[in-house]
Amino acid sequence: MSAQSPPPGLSLQESSYGMGWFRAQLPNILWKLSPNHTLLGGEPPFGDTITPMLAISRRGSIPGARSAVCIFPHTETVTIILGNTLPLHDPCDWIMQLPLQTIFEFAIKHDHLQWTKKAVQAEPRWYESLREQLESKRVKHISPRDLEAFVGYFTKGTGLLTIKVSVKAERLHMAFHGRDDESLKLDHHDCDRFCCLQPPNDLVSRERMVIQHAEYYRFDFEAQTDDRINKLTSMHDPEWIVGETFFKGITSKERSESHNSVS
Questions:
Q1: What is each CA distance from 29 to 47, 56, 207, in whole angstroms?
Q2: How far is it, in rounded angstroms, from Cα 186 to Cα 3?
Q3: For the packed helices 91-103 and 112-136, what is the interaxial angle rounded to 10 degrees?
Q4: Is 100 strand, coil or helix?
Q5: pLDDT of the chain, 263 residues: tens digit per residue
């Protein structure tokens, strides 16, 4: 196991990643893990061969905020960009590059405004692609079992992470740590599978990331030998071959009755 991992794609210049930091010998892509790179399948290299430089950068994002920092050891220059919103793409990346290409007097300059417009236009197509991928794997004309069969608390290991599944207005809802104010609506996909993919504006309004792979939005329930639902599997990480599985404990009704009896 190593803290260093190869970034996606090939590069003639140094390009490495480890512990959240990205090293790039210019000209190069500053941040190959950016949503911009994912949406557009690539982006223009930053810098030129006339001014070879080493750039050490890092990106940060949480629901509702983005940030970017880039260090140039040779000139002792540091650039920090902070954003207080969760847009369709990664503007911090290009906002940072825009003044730097002038400050360093690079011979090759890019129109980052046009690249931003391309990313904004590509995002709806990304959403449609997700829908098509999920639909292509759906087994059609299969009705779900009674939704009450899925209700309960699903945990893993020591139980530090709990997923609450409930029924509201004839629809399944999923809440991590039982936070009903942050619940996800689940739509039946096929068999015992459900999806939480919502329109991009709905996801962004809840400050959720929208650039994910298709399986990220699918949840697979499984039944044990007596045909009762007892497992929930999530494929949120594409590197996990079998996904992450949570096991069903007591139901919400049983938990409430147990709490009332103790009280």
A1: 9, 11, 27
A2: 35
A3: 150
A4: helix
A5: 455 565 655 566 778 888 889 888 898 888 777 778 878 888 888 888 777 789 999 988 777 788 999 999 999 999 999 988 766 678 888 888 888 988 898 888 889 888 888 888 887 788 888 899 999 988 888 888 899 999 999 998 777 889 999 999 999 999 988 888 888 899 999 999 999 988 877 777 766 666 788 899 999 999 987 889 999 999 888 777 888 999 998 544 444 544 454 44
